[in-house]
Amino acid sequence: MLNEILGRRVLIVLGKGGVGKSTLSAALARLATLSGSRALIMECDARAPLAATFGVKPSFVPTIVAHELALMTLDGRAALEEYLHLVVPGRMLLKAVFASRLYQFFVQAAPGLRELMMLGKVFYDAGRTDPKVPPGNVIIVDAPASGQAMSLLKMPTAARSTFGDSVVGKEARNISQMLRDRRNCAIIQVTTADSLSISETIEMHAQLTEIHLTPAAVLFNRMPPSEFDAADISALTTRRGPHLRKKDLEHLAELAKSELNRAAEARKAIAKIRTETGGPVVEIAEHSGLSGIELIDTLASDLARHRDQELPARAAHRR
User: Fold this and answer.
1) Measured distance CA(112)–CA(169) in Å, rounded
2) How far apart are CA 174 and CA 124, in angstroms?
3) Which of 64, 157, 196, 211 has the most CB atoms less than 10 A away?
4) Which of 118, 27, 113 is nearest to 73 (CA)?
5) Domains of the chain
6) Which residues of 112-147 are buried (b: 16+ CB within 10 A; e: fewer)?
7) Is the predicted pLDDT of residue 203 greater than 50, yes or no?
8) Number of neighbouring beta carbons within 10 Å of residue 83
């Protein structure tokens, strides 16, 4: 499943704020580069957390941040102006358009158009062919938080209905077709075990399915480790030794029980997502104490193991 997803041209990563969406977007990009592709991350957050993580300034122009990996901040206004550069002839005329008060008012009054142009930038870069760039490149869109992301993904359909066969309407139709082309585009949801994230993931999955944008997978992030069970905890409380106080053992047992309960709740949450969505769920281990690029690289390695485990399973299934 991960192999199939990574074979697509555009991956759009969605999730509630705080679930690790940006970090996993970067991990997917890193995995793509490990698989021999070039990757471009487009982050939609104006605060540009990934730019800060990689130690670069936020920029609409892609910046190389690692081997075969580039990063850019996807800005609606900049995307609109880039688009106008393509369709408006003459530099002086374009300069006059940008300087006009009418244009400034238009940009402020039409946020939906900026959203459309953000997706238009993805569509343009996904379809662009560059003789210097080998095939197999992947674009990972670190989308806005869930509510904003739904507005972003619904915009092409709305614009298509509003603008009909005009230039904007045709652009909206092309973008809509790109989003629904499962050979080239995949939507990936990210969640954690907390109840709000689970309910939002299931609700958003249903909304996306309703508009024919069914997610390809859910990444269940920060899965608690399950390295012991109730029998291990029971054995811990009965241990004896000169340096083992009963009070300390009981305290450790309580901590272990808490972790065991957390893992059990996470497994219930995964089962619920699978039942409600009918789609694949990939468990991503929790890595306490890691952050930044170290966490991104660790998560990329985890995803690579998941990918490699799928190959023998698929081969066995075919036999």
Assistant:
1) 13
2) 10
3) 157
4) 118
5) 2-227+280-318 (3.40.50.300)
6) bbbbbbbbbbbbbbbeeeeeeeeeebbbbbbbbbbe
7) yes
8) 19
